Amino acid sequence: MPIPVRLRVNNAPRQHDIEPRLLLVHYLRDVCGLTGTHVGCDTSICGACTVLVDGKAVKSCTMFAIQADGSDVTTIEGIATNGHLHRVQQGFWDCHGLQCGFCTPGMIMASVHLLAGNASPSRAEIADGLRGNLCRCTGYSHIIDAVAQAANSTEVTHG
Amino acid sequence: MADTIGTPYVGRAMKRVEDPRLIKGLATYVDDIRLPGLLHAVILRSPHAHARIGRVDVSAARAIPGVVAVLTGADVNAACGLVPCAAAIPDLKAPKHTVLAGDRVYFVGHAVAVAVATDPYIARDAIDAIDVDYDPLPAVTNPEEAVKSGTPLTHPDLGSNIAYTHVVAGGSDIDEAFRRADRVVKHRLCHQRLTPMPIEPRGVVASYDPGEGTLTLWTATQIPHLLRTLLPGMIGVPENKLRVVAPEVGGGFGAKLNVYPEEALCAHLAMRLNAPVKWIESRRENAASTIHGRDQIGEYEVAVKKDGAILGIRTRTVADLGSYLQLLTPAIPTLTGLVLTGCYRIPAVKMEIVGVYTNKMATDAYRGAGRPEATYLIERLMDVVARELGIDRVDLRLKHFPAPAEFPFATSCGLTYDSGNYQGALTKARQLANWDQLLKDRAAARAAGRLSGIGISTYVEICAMGPSKAMPAGGWEWGCVRMEISAKVTVITGVSPHGQGQETTFAQFVADRLGVLMEDIVVLHGDTNVAHYGRDTYGSRGTAVGGSAIVMCIDKIVAKAKTLAAHLFETTADHVVFEKGTFRAPGVTNREIGWPELAGEAYVAKNLPAGLEPGLEASSFYEPQNFTFPFGTHIVAVEVDRDTGHVAITKYVAVDDCGPQINPLIVEGQVQGGIAHSIGQVLFEQTIYDENGQLLTGELMDYALPRAADIPEYILGSTVTPSPVNPLGIKGVGEAGTIGATPAIANAVLDALQPLGVTHLDLPMTPERVWQAIKTRTAAPVGA
């Protein structure tokens, strides 16, 4: 039986009647049409589905959409401002922090959360902060470069 | 650096053209495709490794509102052809590989039935409501036991578990080599089974247009063109009415170099139900039902003289193929035999390969495919020989390297290595690693009671696949370059990149050669309606083979443009000079013509010389005359924790020679990514089936991929030895890291444990296994 959910996604109010069992990731992808958030596993291990819920990094494949009722959700589509890339996005582009790109949205969202809690992390702290996100292409080294660059960058750059 | 025409792009670390859509979340992977009326398929898979299927009751599933169809093998197999294997091995015994299971299941994850519904959640409910009676049968799980007579059979109808026995041999007489030997060094080496685990699982969307009779298949694949060649035989849609699209693809590593049952199944469902059908693989399905890699066990013998001269290597290797032959399953172990002598002059070699069926998922190409196996074997054996003879392991390697002047170098395995300077890469790696200091540090650490080790591997690989006569389905590549009327450039390639960055690297060299800006170039790929021909992406072939086809197109376009320019200059083509995007005729006229004017003339076509066709477009098939043979040296320092068995990589140096580098940042990314796969293989990863054939590593919770904190900081270097095989001189780099790194890391761990008398450990060298070895001070038993 569908039940109502009200939340904000990327600063826009959303209201839908949804099945209680609908996962947040499928709500974002299939109901809101925001397909930048990916599904890479079923068990919260890979992190490809990472989004921010009220500013905290959350694996949206293991949260029901109704649990986000009243929350502020930010996805990869929502972090650029006025067409300007977020500094973490810019870091990933500059440092070749992605290859196939499938883990990248989750990796970027986890990095945004990481930098919100630690503005100037060491390389070891970046690696530890990304322990919930798997990448099979890059070998992580360029990802750590990307987050380190973002940490050192205060300017908003053009996308 | 500002981009101006004439400033070379090649050699620069250009940011990737692909990235903006990927970092903004705007790329379209298969699961992102939305079509009106789309139905969702979910597959019921066998929980048993081997069982007879009794009654299958789908009535409850069909009764669920929203369920459109629930079908079993009895419903679909007759309408679908068999899943193809392209590898030809003499006397190969092959089981019939139907799209869904028939009266038996042969591995955990074997597809038994499919439910199609208006919503994926409902389709999942439906498969939960299917009732299957299984009658479990004995499972074959140990390939070495499986070859013995009187053991249970994976496929009773084949009469044997042995798929084939194949001998790769060459050089001088192997028996004579062993007769002449002062000593025979024996060693048993295993390559564990691995799961490729691209972060995007597989997925398929099929859509049929009954009016046109055309079928479009979007699939997460490395091989849209091979699918277009092979699927018609399965689904009855002719090749010229089948469009295969590899949209954005989230990693492959060989796992998506296959024709899978689900691709034919979705096509069949779309036609049968007259609606588009999507199937998206879950991670659990990916672990069980997408190909695995490696899984070879071999007994190796090396014939050596007292001075260390290696006279020959012989082995009998058992390769666990799993239950079915996927596209290249039986060929992968034979690739191991082709490069078993590594970068060494070894006069005689003989490898007997026994391919064995077991009740497991099929093995097939996984990053490196056959060459990581060979490199691990020869590089472990070099260390074992050096230790047993008391010879320095670097000296032993140097002693067997061919000299740079000896290339092209014919190996006893029957290959001709194109170019190489193995000494150069080794020297550079030792310099970067500060080798003498490493030895001192190790001595100091050991004196202090710590377990410190240094590992080295020198490798060569077979890449740029390959000459058509050596490939199952042609090894050429196709490309097309079009100078548009607007002087924008459209490049179309038959390779199918999925992370390798060829939209960028191709644009770099095309821009240089045509004298245009990179931003004016678009590189298209992965859609058989756009790139009509291609042999796709695998075997480090994309740039070396695919790029060479593009070079041929550019040469044709420039030649045609010169003819047109000569006409406009009222002279002959031999007076026309082309440089940095501008045509001139020195001594004839001061007039210059750039691409905008020339392209306009070519397409408006009011003033063309007699016999010249309008337009500026060329397509080419490039046929490589040989493989290429990248090489390098990896050096690793580790420290092993005595109390926990944990291995810490304290230094990692890689010097890779992939020929000239178009984009060093992308090359670096390929090398780092490849090394990470090896760190996983040596320290963490293993696909495990228990004695009943139950898959114990069926999720990312149980299969340990490396994480960011497991990765050391790399010191990367390169040497540049161009290949004479192709016009770019490029050798390829996609698999180098995986091939060079595995033995280097393994050798380092064993070097660290050498003072304890540990001479061997199986992969993966997990903390538990290392700790056990330290505790017992002896080798852990094989398969432990």
* Domain module tally of chain A: 2
What is the CATH C level class of the largest domain in chain A, in words?
Alpha Beta
Structural class of chain B: alpha+beta
Tell me the strand order in the biggest sheet of chain A. 2-1-5-3-4
Residue share in helix of chain B: 25-40%
User: Could you name the CATH homologous superfamily of the largest domain in chain B?
Assistant: Aldehyde oxidase/xanthine dehydrogenase, molybdopterin binding domain
Mean pLDDT of chain B: 96
What global shape of chain B is seen?
Answer: globular
Q: Tell me the span between the first and last alpha carbons of chain A.
A: 43 Å
What is the CATH third-level topology name of the largest domain in chain B?
Aldehyde Oxidoreductase, domain 4
Largest sheet of chain B: 7 strands, mixed
The stretches of 5 or more residues of chain B where confidence is low (pLDDT under 50) are none
Written account of the structure:
Chain A is of the alpha+beta class and 159 residues long. Chain A has two domains: 3-78, Beta-grasp domain (Ubiquitin-like (UB roll)), CATH 3.10.20; 84-153, Orthogonal Bundle (DNA polymerase, domain 1). Chain A is 31% helix and 18% strand. Chain A contains five helices and seven strands; from the N terminus they run ββαββββααααβ. In chain A, the strands form two sheets. A five-stranded mixed sheet of chain A has the order 2-1-5-3-4, sandwiched between helices. A two-stranded antiparallel ribbon of chain A has the order 6-7. In chain A, a hairpin with a 2-residue loop joins β3 and β4 (56-59). In chain A, α2 packs across α5 (141-152). Chain A is globular. The relative contact order of chain A is 0.17. Chain B has 784 residues and is an alpha+beta fold. In chain B, 28% of the residues lie in helices and 24% in strands. Chain B is built from 21 helices and 29 strands. In chain B, strands 3-5-1-12-9-10-11 form a seven-stranded mixed sheet, sandwiched between helices. In chain B, strands 7, 8, 13, 14, 15 and 16 form a six-stranded mixed sheet that branches. In chain B, strands 19-27-28-29 form a four-stranded mixed sheet, sandwiched between helices. In chain B, a hairpin with a 3-residue loop joins β24 and β25 (589-594). Chain B starts with 18 loop residues before the first helix and ends in an 8-residue tail after the last helix. The model of chain B has no long low-confidence stretch (mean pLDDT 96). Classes of the chains: A alpha+beta (159), B alpha+beta (784). Chains A and B meet through α2, α3, α4 and α5 of A and α1 and α19 of B.
